[in-house]
Design brief:
The protein is α/β, with parallel strands linked by helices. The chain is built from 8 helices and 6 strands, in the order H-H-H-E-E-H-E-H-E-H-E-H-E-H. The strands form 2 sheets. The chain has a 4-stranded parallel beta sheet, with helices on both faces. The radius of gyration is 22 Å and the shape is globular.
Length: 233
């Protein structure tokens, strides 16, 4: 069988690189048993290039704060380690670590309530908030070539296009310290990420069926959503 020329960490059963619980006195884990598709074998030069980036003081400090934030999400108890912080609390803590003061929320028009609650929480925690929803601009879908029979509300009705590029530009020009993406559609989120020039995090992604928890379909892919295991048309 020909060796897969691309990294396939999702197929790895060794988890050698994690070495969680290994003793520092024992040094780095042995890499002799790495699978052929391991990026450490296929692209060793990448890790040297990445290390050079981490040597930059600003990048190194950001990475350090992110790792500290990860640590603070857990607590060690007599019966083991358990998680203790929801993502919204992590967001608040990390933004404070980075000395961010102004945050920009780019949210779906269908999540106005959630965006409002998020704004209230962040403002009460001392942040200045800029928010812009996806339908801002009120541009008809015809502007991007949508046909009458491709409208959700049906032919003959006005339907505003999602405008993630404008959302990104507004967030950029508002000079926020960090952008927060809340429930943008697939594809629209990609455009927002492409045009956003400030540090970006995602609080939630869009999943209209599963209450914005797309992993639920993976967890049930052997039962309720077994159709996912087939070739979806």
């Amino acid at each position: 069988m020909a060796r897969n020329p691309y990294p396939q960490c999702a197929r790895c059963t060794t988890k050698i690189c994690e070495n969680r619980g290994g003793k520092m006195s024992e040094g780095a884990p042995s890499l002799e048993k790495l699978p052929g598709f391991c990026p450490m074998k296929l692209m060793p030069e990448v890790f040297a290039e990445a290390a050079a980036e981490y040597d930059k003081s600003a990048v190194r400090e950001f990475a350090r704060l992110a790792s500290v934030q990860e640590f603070q999400c857990f607590e060690r108890l007599p019966d083991g380690v358990r998680a203790k912080l929801p993502r919204i609390e992590e967001l608040i803590q990390f933004a404070r670590k980075c000395n961010y003061r102004k945050l920009g929320i780019a949210h779906c028009g269908g999540l106005m309530m959630e965006a409002g609650i998020l704004t209230d929480i962040l403002e009460k925690n001392g942040f200045e908030i800029v928010s812009v929803q996806c339908k801002a601009g009120c541009v008809p879908k015809e502007e991007i070539g949508i046909q009458a029979d491709e409208k959700i509300v049906g032919p003959g009705n006005w339907e505003t296009m999602c405008n993630p590029i404008a959302q990104a530009m507004i967030v950029n020009r508002s000079q926020v310290d960090m952008a927060i993406m809340l429930g943008l559609c697939i594809g629209h989120d990609t455009l927002f990420i492409k045009y956003c020039d400030v540090p970006l995090t995602v609080l939630a992604v869009k999943d209209r069926v599963l209450a914005h928890n797309p992993l639920a379909a993976l967890y049930h892919s052997d039962s309720y959503y077994r159709r996912l295991r087939n070739n979806i048309s």
